[in-house]
Design a protein that fits this description.
There is one protein chain. This protein is α+β, with helices and mostly antiparallel strands. It has one domain. The chain is built from 2 helices and 7 strands; from the N terminus they run E-E-E-H-E-E-E-E-H. The strands form 3 sheets. It has a 3-stranded antiparallel β-sheet. The longest helix has 13 residues. 20% of the residues are buried.
């Protein structure tokens, strides 16, 4: 779950600061977790949408995922369109987040 307008931890890849340190962004970070969880390298858009940010009037998130993960593993991206670093979750998002953690519980 990552706001596409996040000013603190940018959504996209890039470089930061005078030393131009590279960062992966949300897609790159999820790809790292996909590798760790034995998932496919391809991030695939799904038809699933969510209303995540309470500041948005409707569905603001199109879910993408890496398929074929190891048992209990996952690599899913919920880009929250137009959201900054901090936002209030909708009840729908809270339920979806809880379901995700319940489904992928640590051993």
């Amino acid at each position: 779950m990552h706001g596409t307008k996040d000013g603190a931890v940018p959504y996209g890849p890039g470089t930061d600061g005078p030393t131009k340190v590279a960062y992966a962004g949300a897609v790159g970070t999820v790809a790292t977790w996909a590798t760790k969880n034995g998932c496919s390298a391809q991030l695939t858009a799904t038809s699933e949408t969510l209303h995540v940010s309470d500041g948005s009037p409707a569905a603001d998130t199109k879910v993408s995922r890496h398929e074929g993960c190891l048992a209990n593993g996952a690599a899913v991206l919920w880009p929250v369109e137009g959201a900054d670093h901090l936002f209030t979750l909708t009840p729908e998002a809270s339920t979806a987040l809880w379901k995700f953690f319940e489904t992928h519980a640590k051993p």
